[in-house]
Amino acid sequence: MIKLASACLICCLSIGASAQNINNVSDKKSSYGFNIGLNYSYLLKDAATPTDVSFANDLGFRLGVLANYKISRFTAISPKAELAFYNSSINFSETQNTQPTYHVMPMAVEVMTHFVFRDDLKKLSPYFLIGPNVRIPLNEKAESITDFGTGWDFAIDFGIGLEKAFKHFRFAPELRYSYGFRNVNQHPKISALQLHNVVLVFNLRG
To answer: Percent of the chain at pLDDT above 70?
Structure first.
């Protein structure tokens, strides 16, 4: 997992380095870059979930690549692909289950299409985004009969950000809320789980 994350980070840094060679970022119809950040994931359980299990949610991190296609001065489409590491789990007592901890989507690839609304000609521009997000878990299939995977998810992202234009690149801290719709659970003792998360990323694009 560490080797995979390192390879993705090297790829992202390479894209960011090439983006800095662009002389005029304001006039470009399309641009590319990368991002890196943190996510806080949490689980929403069904009413039928046993009361003698505990839920744990914590910080994770993510990194990815992105593009920006300008439609007009105030609107753009921004597809993104991010590798996300989550820290959500369900803990059972050892007497109840052979798998004391059920890790829910510990690692996933997220493919997003965000519609971004901002004034692209300003050097400092706040913006709003909305769009679909498909989470593809990398542990979808169970490795053994005592281990359980996670189902894929469909979510809607909402976010705000503040983009600063420099001479050769644009930098934007971005805060997103991702609302998951599907039941991602594959554990027989749990009826249904929805995965939501809050994401803080730092975007860099040419």
So the answer is: 79
Architecture of the domain made up of 2-205? Beta Barrel (2.40)
63 in Cβ contact with 35 (< 8 Å): yes
Select the highest-mean-pLDDT range: 8-17, 68-77, 92-101.
Answer: 68-77
Looking at the DSSP bridge assignments, the partners of residue 136 are 109
CA-to-CA dists, residue 185 to 85, 153, 167, angstroms: 17, 10, 47
pLDDT, averaged across the chain: 84
pTM: 0.80
The neighbour count for residue 114, using CB atoms within 10 Å, is 23
Find the distance separating the first CA and the last CA of the chain, reported in whole Å: 29
**Residues whose CB is less than 8 angstroms from the CB of residue 96 and which lie 6 or more positions away in sequence, other chains included:** 52, 189
In DSSP terms, which residues pair with 44 in a beta bridge?
Answer: 194
Domain spans of the chain, in order of start: 2-205
Which residues are CB-neighbours of 10 under 8 A, at least 6 positions away? none
At 96, the amino acid letter reads: Q
